[in-house]
Design goal:
Elements: E1 2-9, E2 19-26, H1 33-43, E3 63-66, E4 69-72, H2 78-81, E5 84-89, E6 95-97, E7 100-101, H3 104-112, H4 132-138, H5 155-159, H6 166-176, H7 184-191, H8 205-209, H9 216-233
Parallel strand pairs: 1-5
Antiparallel strand pairs: 1-2, 3-4, 3-5, 6-7
Helix pairs in contact: 3-6, 6-7, 6-9
Length: 235
Amino acid sequence: MEHHLKIRRFDPESGAGPYWARYTVDAEPTDTVLDALNAVKWYHDGSLALRQSCGQGVCGSDALRINGRNRLACKTLLRDVGRSVSVAPIAGLPVIKDLAVDTEPFFAQYRSVLPYLQCDDDPGETERRQTPEERARFDEATKCILCAACTTSCPSAWANDRFVGPAAIVQAYRFICDSRDSAGAERLAQLDGESGVWRCRTTFNCTDACPRGIAVTSCIGEIKLELAIGRRTGA
């Protein structure tokens, strides 16, 4: 069955600006958009640049703007997007070539929230244990695969590159809620700044874009609530 792909192309070495290229490939409705893109690269134009790795929706490397929405190409079936498909790089990050973007600004924001466990106490030879209820509090946030789909769908992130962004906030939330961590106050103070959670305008684009089904906006809202309570109580 024929499927028609319109792909946003850009080669910085050509000296020309971005443009749309059109390709027709044979594919089944149960094939993925990534399958179709590979067909373009393998049989039509080997110069097409895109990222991919596991192909199973785990690594997050193939987040793209498919028919105007951020999705993982490896998880998006052609039957769900139609026989005419537009594919562009995710917005808000510098384009290296074609569908490949420079993710360093995204990961710089991720690193800024201290996305690792910090503990003041020495447990000795024992484990730092948690109850199932304590673990459940941040369980959803651990599903993040850092694909950048949420952050690059956020109008606030497009408008201000200093905004830490939804993905970094989810990572901060994961450790703020962790009963074993001791740097929650530091992370909250950072997120209370001008580049933190208050730049979120609650458009829900991030939640809609998340391929793992994380309620991103809810995580951001919980941090806002905790900060607001802290301001009232002086905590």
